[in-house]
Amino acid sequence: MRSPALRHVLTHLITPLLMCIGMGLAYMGAFVTPEPHHLPVAVVGTAVQTKVFAQTVKDTAGDKLDVRTVATRADAVRLLESRDVTGAYVPSAKAPELLVATAASDMGATAVEKVFTPVAAERGTPLKVTDVAAPVADDPTGQGLFFLLVAVSIGSYASVAALGAAGAALAMRVRALLALGVSAVVGGIGALLAGPVFHLAHHDLAGVWGMAWLYSAGILLVGVGLHTFLKRWTTLAMMVLFVMLNFTSSGGLFRPELQNGFFGTLHAFWNGAGFVEGARSLLYFGNDGLARNVWTLAGWLLAGLLVTAAAAVYERTRRPLRRTAHPEGGTGPVAGTTSAEPAARKGTEAETEADAQEEAEEEIEETVGV
Question: What is the C-alpha to C-alpha distance for residues 363 and 361, in angstroms, rounded to an integer?
Fold first, then answer.
């Protein structure tokens, strides 16, 4: 290609076009056709008729439902509060009842209602739906935590460009410390949004900030470390890791039981799921499962520390090579050179620095634009 400017533009178009493909595959693959996939439900009762009914539901639904029986209504409530089941049906000839926990998943509760409402209708009785863990009135669908995840994620991965590209001249330990500081600020913004601004969290706001900080720090450290190796392709890598795979597997809109096996598997250990499920545990379910989700976030933070450590070692080994390639020092001409060569070298170094600065600015603009 003869035009360097055109080649430069086309090279930079690769990233947004790949993002277009990736976002389409990820979001449409995860959200367009939600269907129950081994959705866990319970039927309350110990009588033979109850067990026969539960088996009939299982046989009719096939792989869509995992049906178990529990002895009492209180047992069913405990399973809902621990999020081991999505719904529990209490058979009754006069007043059948369906127990759900919409704070765990509004979409999951809706899916369970679609299963058991026709069952009650066949018996000519209306179905009573009882919500044992409802979200706060300010977040009626319970999806506010997902959008909080989006806000904290954007603040985190967009900051990577500033720390990785514009801060490339700083030592890695300085960039890592800045990443920890920025993540604390991003977590604080998330806590403000969750508390005073939109009232998603009516208690334990400090805990929400702590999880947001852990989540953001993991993203920032992974990104700052990856930037050493990937440079301008870091933006694409961050979008794949913390948007395409992250938002879709977080469980913020659809629980893993309503998604295909790929995203359901990611939900078990991806950091977005750790944040969303941890916040649910903290705010609605008496800290049940909170420790597991905090450990998930801590694992990503550890991964970020390992990546930045590897990047620091890599940069230290590369620095002597750069010095050999561009020796410094000396005010006069070296034997065998002309006096014009030092000036030419300085001009080349200035052009290289200008190109690096321009590339850093382009990367920041590209990231923020996304």
Answer: 5
